[in-house]
Amino acid sequence: MALIHDFILVKTDHEPPFDLFYLLMLKDEAKRDMVVHIPDDLILYIMDTMKWVCSYNPFNNEKQYGLYYHGLSLLKEDGIRTLNSIAQAWLSLFTVAPDIITLTGPYVTIEGEPDIPGEYEIITFSKNDIITRINKLVELTSKAMDSEENYMILHHGI
Questions:
Q1: How far is 25 from 110, CA to CA, in rounded Å?
Q2: CA-CA-CA-CA torsion for 133, 52, 75, 145, nearest 10 degrees?
Q3: For 39-62, what is each residue's pLDDT tens digit?
Q4: Measured distance CA(2)–CA(33) in Å, rounded
Q5: Most buried residue, 7, 24, 34, 122, by most Cβ within 10 Å?
Q6: Domain boundaries, the chain
Q7: Whole-structure pTM over 0.85, yes or no?
């Protein structure tokens, strides 16, 4: 099973902090077109740029930068604008890639085998799949920015 990060457009009239049940309810109520699934390998590849995104811990409303990798992060207007710009930049970059995108992943070793050297993982993606996912993220953030409604984006890490 592939690891996935979800970006969910949620409408709420409340301000954080939220309890877990409220967040899960918002996630469950999100329509299919309001959720973007991004593979973990891609998130790891672009993680340095994700650290520029202002986000909030949804449980205590504490401001942070980056996405909580193993849990929930809430993006308000400032973070949504930054995420939109980052996603557009990556979208532009990936549009000039070949049909099969090959990326260098993390450095991996075999635990307990010090004599076997590690190596960088090679990750491949379909250009069309990555373009589709990132474009949907751009659309999601654009909808949040352009709407009169009170939208936030909930990032649900692995």
A1: 40
A2: -70
A3: 999 999 999 999 999 999 888 889
A4: 21
A5: 7
A6: 7-105+120-156
A7: yes
